[in-house]
Amino acid sequence: MSFPPVLRSEWLKVRTLRSLVVGLGAVVLVTAAFSALAALDDGGGGADFDPLFTAFFGVNFGQIAAITFGAQAMSSEFQGGALRVSLTAVPRRGRWFAAKTTAVGAPALAVGLLTGCLSLAVGKALLGDRASGVSWAEGLRAVVGCGIYLALMALFAAGLTALLRSGVTTLSILIPFLLLVSFVVGDMSGNVADLLPDRAGQVVLHQTWDGLLGPWAGLAVTALWTSAVLLAGSWSVRRRDA
């Protein structure tokens, strides 16, 4: 079977599973809601105030929905013998894995771009004059970066789920890491933490930055992390029994 029909079948799985559709919707709603709350915070305006990141603050929470989407999309294959059925229809495991990750990454990117547009619009509207220093180019960079970052995190979760064969285990690792460990490590390790996948990728959402990486270099680091995990996931699918 050629790649296009394999991709169509995997996309059909994604769009017909209600939990996955709800997960994508949650990315938009959660991000916009927390960005609005951050913009309404009257504590902004100090020396360290970053109006652009304030508008995109909700990504810290929206990414949880993105990784949940990626983990669920992949973990569904390891339930009830679904992977065995998929590989019977598509014996070339590498082709199936490529189609599966494309079916995860493409909608995550589209939703991520929508999320970026909505976050910027809501953030600037609520920040008012405090967002006057954000240029059109900076806003566009952050919107595009938001879409790429959320797609990469969804793919990261999908790859890790393929490796571990458990969405629950994946989320048990990634959610505490994103919400707690990354911040603790960041406070204790200085610039080394700039190379973590979440901290590196979110540089693109800042108006200014002081770390090792710039916006696009940070996304490149996140992409390298994601590529490594996807390669490990592909190896697991190829080498282990369905």
Q: Give me the number of helical elements.
A: 10
How much of the polypeptide forms β-strand, as a percent range?
A: under 5%
Mean pLDDT equals 90
Question: Biggest sheet, open or closed, and with what strands and sense?
Answer: none
Helix/strand order, N-terminal first = HHHHHHHHHH
The count of strands amounts to: 0
Distance between the termini: 19 Å
SS content category? mainly alpha
Radius of gyration from the alpha-carbon trace, in angstroms: 18 Å
* Low-confidence region ranges: none
**Helix content estimate:** over 70%
Instruction: Please state the overall shape, judged from the principal axes of the Cα atoms.
Output: globular
What attributes does this structure have?
242 residues, mainly alpha, 0% strand
Structure description:
The chain is an all-alpha fold and 242 residues long. It is 76% helix and 0% strand. It has helices spanning 3-16, 18-40, 51-55, 59-75, 82-89, 93-127, 136-164, 167-189, 197-201, 215-239.
Briefly characterize the structure.
The protein is mainly alpha-helical and 242 residues long.
List the helices and strands and how they pair.
Blueprint: H1 3-16, H2 18-40, H3 51-55, H4 59-75, H5 82-89, H6 93-127, H7 136-164, H8 167-189, H9 197-201, H10 215-239
Helix pairs in contact: 1-6, 2-4, 2-6, 4-6, 4-7, 4-8, 6-7, 7-8, 7-10
